[in-house]
Batch of 2 targets.
Target 1
Amino acid sequence: MDIKAAKFMEGFIRLTADAFKKGWHERNGGNLTYRVPASEVESVKDSLHEVKEWLPIGNTVPGLAGEYFLVTGSGKYMRNVELAPEENVALIKIDEKGENYGIVWGLVKGGRPTSELPTHLANHELKKKLTDGKNRIIYHAHPTNLIALTFVLPLNDKEFTRELWEMATEDPVIFPEGLGVVPWMVPGGKAIADASTKLMEKYRVVVWAHHGLFVCGDDFDEAFGLMDTVEKAAEICVKVRSMGGKKQTITKENFLDLAKEFNIDLNTDLLD
Ligand code: 2HA
Ligand code: ZN
């Protein structure tokens, strides 16, 4: 099968197109990676070429040796993925040591995988292990309201989570672990990769202060849905604060009742 006709390509394109229309991807902002199952790689093998050059990942990910990833390109625009996936996206293979990658399809007019590749792959390695291989998506976007809140809310997991949980009753059901907050850091390097991975051990959502949001998911719907849910909570929060702040809210007892009724493992460490 032509890789452009594959179901996983359709899912990848739908996420990038919808997310651009949401306003989360100005210019070349944001990046998306999908760990492609071996059976799906096999189904598109006629579209693939040999690795021409092995290049350093910038991180070491032995847990991903031999894996394939569909990745957005560095400097490429999310809004163009739909128009020409072969120019804006690549399928890459990881070498047997987890130190280098090689392109086997895409980026036909040149380019490299996303500048956030070290962070994406470190988090794929972690989540693959933690979820018995179920997690396949890592996704980073620049959602406006969420970024705005990082200038106003205290930059710690507890206060940030509590504020967003309070913004919509079902949000604690969507991210019951809460979310982690990384302070301002230089994008694209190993330091932000390490800080994000540390938080991803407990969470599925990590805020990058004054930059954006970083999420994971088993599939495209889950990753997009998580980004959408957190950004919507942030939008409500911005509106509430613009209207003069909370006059009433969801209480700790309310959250505990919700957790019981919905049978969710709410991270009550973040509630006190
Ligand atoms: O421009 O969003 O974090 C791509 C990015 C880097
Ligand atoms: Zn970014």
Target 2
Amino acid sequence: MCGIVGAVAQRDVAEILVEGLRRLEYRGYDSAGLAVVDAEHQLNRLRRLGKVQILADALDAQPVLGGTGIAHTRWATHGEPSEENAHPHMSGENIAVVHNGIIENHEPLREILTQRGYVFTSQTDTEVIAHLVHWELEQGGSLLDAFQRTVAQLHGAYGTVVMDRRDPERLIAARSGSPLVIGLGIGENFLASDQLALLNVTRRFLFLEEGDIAEITRRAVDIFDVEGNAVERTIHESTAEHDAADKGKYRHYMQKETFEQPSAIINTLEGRIDANSVLVESLGHGAKEILQKAEHIQIIACGTSYNAGMVARYWFESIAGVSCDVEIASEFRYRNFVTRPNSVLITLSQSGETADTLAALRLAKERGFMAAMTVCNVAGSSLVRESDIAIMTRAGTEIGVASTKAFTTQLTALLMMVTALGKEKGTVSAEKEAEIVKSLHRLPAQIEQALTFDKQIEALAEDFADKHHALFLGRGEFYPIAMEASLKLKEISYIHAEAYAAGELKHGPLALIDADMPVIVIAPNNELLEKLKSNIEEVRARGGQLYVFADESAGFQESDGMTIIPMPHVDEVCAPIFYTVPMQLLSYHVALIKGTDVDQPRNLAKAVTVE
Ligand code: M6R
């Protein structure tokens, strides 16, 4: 999704802006641009189709000086990816605007503005903001007044920033549905759509709230709420890592983040479990009371986070004995659902800014859920701020578009939550709790062990490089792990992949089986093993190419058409987390062989902040 960076300083800011855009590249984009104004009121705009590096090269060739500027990476929604559609957009020679999100009423506004004589040079919805600000300024008042009147006319979700060449030390920003954070410096101030963009210039941040408008100069930041009242927002000291944007010894962020999983899980567990039990209070103030009263769990999420929810559904019902539904946020938010008594809503999200998940949370809060909890990876994100309880996954910044450590840490946090719920409801005995907690203690070492299969899986990946389709099979909580595996493969290698609950094969997908259809099976040694073996036979009998990631004690023999990848025996409860890792490695190596853009797959964005 789009990214915004802005700066008001005494020094030249172009490099800060470009570095900020680089740090936002992981979000996905197709063009980049910036506009900088200097003390002599010269405004220079530079936009390029493609990578931030292309913009940086253009800047090297044609340096842009000035202390106030805005910059943007665009992910096309209205109008194709092109230089004309790249931000900043301008009205005349004075007003420059960047914008994340969607202006839903841009068509009627465009019509009104055209009647007023404005000429549009792009197909974007954003350009209406620039012309509206220009128009409102003509009607009188300051840039802030004009901007306040402008945003009052906008419908949709946006984070937007405006700059006026004639007023070169001021930026005005508005947040409505798309995050904006202000970075506080000494004698200089910054803003961005994600604090990560600014970590090289400051660690002190103010998060704008819904409806806030901020006026930012070198020496001051003034914030006004939706009613126009001056408000104070708390200053947060960021603890995010400095070097999150550094790949270190790894070739890709996805690879780095896959290998970070043992330490990420240690961080998730820290202070939340002791030798034998889950410390319920550590899940958040009031968590204990909420869990005691909970009679139903409703999980809402998208993509990989949804898959984590699907695993958790098995756990909530089989371990804690509490009914659980899981739904994709974009469906839930437009469905006329029935709220069950004492139902706890749990949103799952790496970014905490996924538009559909956030909208579902807001809707659910109106519809009588007992409490809203979130399992999230980004402190200060909208989901965290708007939920009653936030359980942070502490995975560290995840930059690769393909989610890896966010997923396994979500599962780790959810397993703790399920255990805590069962304990509070009396369905999980002290012995059972101790057994789960001991498994959680062993988990980081087991994930470490899973990562040692990297070389073997790299060799195996060769078999998939010329394939156009793949089928992943699992049963029980390994069915959603198969879903996650197929999502990973399709998003980074562009191989069409499907996941099926293995028992469902004969109800349709068996028709697809032939020698060109690799079938990847997740086969832990659990009570469904014999059933799964029958499903595997169904594939074998039809000439399918099987790749079975099997518990070494499960008794599989390699044979024609069936490759066995023996996995060490791991505790049953944590096995879904363990088996995720070889699946991530497989997708990664297939994508490498295919030469795709692993960290920024085509058409995808890291944080999906539009509907
Ligand atoms: O930030 P979120 O977890 O809310 O994001 C949800 C999905 O967009 C995300 O998981 C997506 O499916 C990933 N690209 C999958 O790897």
